[in-house]
User: Fold this.
Amino acid sequence: MKEEILELIEKQRFNDLREYLEKINSADFPSLFEEIEEEKILIIYRILSKEKAAKVFAELEPDVQEKLINYFTDKELKNVLDELFFDDTVDLIEEMPANVVKRILRNVDVKDRKIINELLAYPDDSAGTIMTTEFIDLKENMTVEDAFEKIRKIGLEKETVYTCYVLTIDRKVIGVIDVKQLLIANKEEKIKNIMNTNVKTISTLTDKEDVAKMFDKYNFIAMPVVDMENRLVGIITIDDAIDVLQEEAEEDFEKMAAVTPSDESYFKTTVFKHAKNRIVWLIFLMLASILTGNVISMYENAFSALPILVAFVPLLMGTGGNCGAQTSTLVIRGFSQDEIKLKDFLKVWWKEVRVAILVGTTLALINAIRIFIQYDIGQTKLAVVVGLTLIIVAMLAKSLGCILPMLAKKLKLDPAIMASPLITTIVDTCSVLVYFNLAVLILGV
Amino acid sequence: MKEEILELIEKQRFNDLREYLEKINSADFPSLFEEIEEEKILIIYRILSKEKAAKVFAELEPDVQEKLINYFTDKELKNVLDELFFDDTVDLIEEMPANVVKRILRNVDVKDRKIINELLAYPDDSAGTIMTTEFIDLKENMTVEDAFEKIRKIGLEKETVYTCYVLTIDRKVIGVIDVKQLLIANKEEKIKNIMNTNVKTISTLTDKEDVAKMFDKYNFIAMPVVDMENRLVGIITIDDAIDVLQEEAEEDFEKMAAVTPSDESYFKTTVFKHAKNRIVWLIFLMLASILTGNVISMYENAFSALPILVAFVPLLMGTGGNCGAQTSTLVIRGFSQDEIKLKDFLKVWWKEVRVAILVGTTLALINAIRIFIQYDIGQTKLAVVVGLTLIIVAMLAKSLGCILPMLAKKLKLDPAIMASPLITTIVDTCSVLVYFNLAVLILGV
Assistant:
């Protein structure tokens, strides 16, 4: 691809170039632009048709968009903005620095600017921020023929034409109809007779994560967004819903690894920003782990008398952490999949306790065998101490692994912050406590 | 919802019940069925229209589907199977026990059975397993009018009618056209003049995860699946692509928490199965952590002489583990988002090293302050030992956090297995080694 393009530019065969570029999917341009130098990018971009140019622009990374805008004449910028869907324009404005935003707003039509400002006003993460105000609206007394007329007239500028919404005069949603249904219906048929009156709507203030889940559940291509008076103000299309699903999963991955989530890509984030995203949790967890250390110090006499005791601390801490991580991850994901609910608390906990007994006992036995192999057979008591600790720690870790995320949920916090790193640290302290107490008790050190 | 339905059943107002049920979205039935007893479920199900019944059936959990099938007469079963899309039938067959599968295959038409067997033959996780063989195919010499004729005739049974594929006589894909384009085109226009000839196709053997990524990238509603001879054999629709994206993310979450991934839901998985999914990693990691213990034992003299040394082991192990978890998670997700590639190795590693130096030093300073507060000022050397260890461990952990997943990728293994649990265990050993060596060196114990 790249080669052909560069060659066509070389030979100044711009008509062939344009033809060639029009065939390339707009989603393939970002990776293409990464590989070629800026002035060539500009040449390519300026050769594209108005529509294609806008499609391509919407796909680009913010930093590339900014570069292009700075090259653009006001006329070029206006062309792009006219073609962009409102939700893409809003995304753009949210990413650009103030001076660029000023230029953008100066170059959109007055009526568009009004809509854009409304969209910008919605709270973060609300449905309003990902919706587009472009949709096909029909009236219930239209015939199928009229409907097709309208779609043909304004269809192409709309992000999706396949789901049409039937509105009253005061723009309340009373029905929804798919083009599929229109296609098989009789041309003279009235819309009101074939529309589906049971419409699932989204409020502008609904959390976009819940919106994404509805798309996942109902397999819609688009969903209508209504204001407080149930008036249709926009639609959300499935491609935006997918992006939200992806973002939310990434955020959970980062939170669960004790990283402060950020939208920027790994490489676009500076070393300093990376450090900033990670240091907070590291400090907190480090300070927390001091407690474990102090507990160990309390048993100085024990391990001074029997130094081998210390050798099992990593094993116990590690196992406890892993048991907790397994449970907390399953519970946290269970929440975000709406599979586990708060009312299931006892069900989950009881399940985890039984799992803990199974795995704890297995680990204890394996470890006992290993102790007999590594040290002489006289270590029965030691094997008992470590084994018992393993079982208790497994139960403790798995209990905390389900209790803490549930607690966070109850307190309206994000359960993901209760993931392995935090639980590991808490479990560490407990395991050391249990371990040395059993040691003192059974080994009498 | 539940109350109304139960009441209508109570009063045997079955016509009203049917009307009421038809209005409910099929995706809402699974949760409804969970709340009411079986014979009522059967009553409700049998009242549904043929089409609705099939839609609802496709949404149900395998265990409910199995129960229903066991209640079904062969005629009822046949009705459902006739209405189901092929990809749903295949999903069903893959979930059901052998005896039910026999009954299913006995009740599908001969020609359908042939198709189903073909679909079942595709390798796991391949595009073939999630595609449906129902699509709209056009010929290039058809007019737009003809195209609409065809869509009207066969449209409703097709899972999506909005993307049509233009085939040669030997079923090779030469073009794709959206209903949107057909709607605005002139009725007499020939398809070949308006179709898009640059078609992105998927091979039946493509990994379904790659398929899902293409949907995410190109925002298609449907994509064509072709065999080795580039003949169209089916299409994949966006709803199936979303499910794959979700599944893959969940699998990563489980792998990264040292849990063997499983498709079953948390509650549907037995305690024993849960234990089985978790024990393998727990045993492996426990055995690995023995090494750390043995290393500690090697320095028995050191901590017998200066017991306070032991108090810092949890802090160092914990911090190392957390640093490693942060990096490995970012790298693993970077891979699955195609944002980080193998060739970026040095770029990533160099970035992580600098981040490590920043966070390591910060942690070292904070910890030094804390040592001076907790113990008397004489502990400068101790603060130096712990501080240096923290910095080195941070660098080690973040290096391993990017090297190991990269290595796994290079070896064509799943990078997700190189997540925090494994890295933590490896880092533990290193940190203890570094720590006690520095202690011996600087504190001369």
